[in-house]
Input
Amino acid sequence: MSSDSDEDAIIFRQNVNDNELDSSSSSSSSTDEDDRLLQTLKRTSYSSRRVTRSSPIKKSKSVQIQKFDLGRNFDPQLASSLDRIQNVKDEVDNPSTVTTVKEQKSNTVRSRIKPRDASSQYIDLIVRETISGRYIDWHFISNDTRFEDVDIDDELIEDSDNHAVRDAIRRKYPTLLELIESLGADLSLLQEDKPLTRKRDYDSLSEMTPVDSMMRAIGCYQDDKQFIKYLLCFILDRKIWESQDCDDDWCSQMLESVGDEQIIDFYLSLVDPKDYFMHYRLSRCISRLQSPLIHRIIRPITIEEEFTQLIEDKNYESLLYFTLFVYGSHEMPFGPSSRTQYFKDCVEDMCNEGTNAVELSLLRGLLSLFLKIRIS
Output
């Protein structure tokens, strides 16, 4: 009996010990898990506190923007500048906007040109030229010619004074007006006041009679009352002026019996008094008119005063042609002079001030050349 009790007691204690071990093991495992969970919670809590302290929550909904020193080269208007650049790019990339302007001018130029098969390269060249205006000029001969020259039989007649040729031409065209119209002159241009100044246009590329034939025909009407007027309109036409046939000798011969003042009266009825571009051209066509024309249009002011006024008005194109017009005359001879040096100093002052007009650059070179010319 006691033996059984002792065994039972031993077994009970063993079970108790085993349970204690199991409980201790379980408690140890549970404690380890609690420790890891506690550490995680601590880290999270510390991190939250740290974030809260460094970035406190704002009650307002506005966002605080930190301002930095971006340096002196930073453009504060960068965004608006980029917007403007983008707008310009959009306009350039838009073919309808660019093409419309170009096509408008192309159509205008093409409408004034007689040959409908005119080269597209020529049209494009004119359209692109928007600064100098080099293609706009006085074009009296702007229609296709209908002129019929004399027969070969009249050409072969021995006649030192060309009476046979003159009579043959005047039989076909009884008046100078009829001849001028047959040569392709646009007489409607003369209905405008000062037409040689105000009715400049593009060359119509019309079909023309050879210049020497036109000159010979016009020379047959020197007794016509309108001869001086039509002759001036003819010789100042850019196409005629640039030809090798129409020179100072022929023009002077045609007006040999006419006084200078009478010619100038007709001329100034066709041209604005300040049109130095055309004055220069006339002085090269009929050189004897240079000094009388200077006296007529510049007086009562002096050449220096007109030069200064043109500079003040910034009318550099007129300034260039004014200088070309007056030099070589009795009033403004070539060579060293105080007036030429004054002109040169004025032009150099304008160039040094940053004026980039191409006419001033040309003028500075011309005046330097004029100072070096010595006429014995």
In short: The first helix runs from residue 2 to 54. The longest strand covers residues 136-137. Residues 300-376 form one domain.
